[in-house]
Write the structure tokens for this entry.
Amino acid sequence: MGLALLPNWLIDNDLQAGTLVDVFPNYEVTATDFSTAAWLLYPSRAYVPLKVRAFIEFLQNSMQKS
């Protein structure tokens, strides 16, 4: 279906079973500061519903003030 960055605890069984494939096995990715890290996933950039856009802007503003 596509690439995804997922936590090991969530996908270890799937990696072992072969249902998921690690496409970058020589690299490890970690957030540098979990107190300010946020990831938002939504299906399309062509059309972002107003509610989603408002939520993203709210989070951006909230993170900048911290």
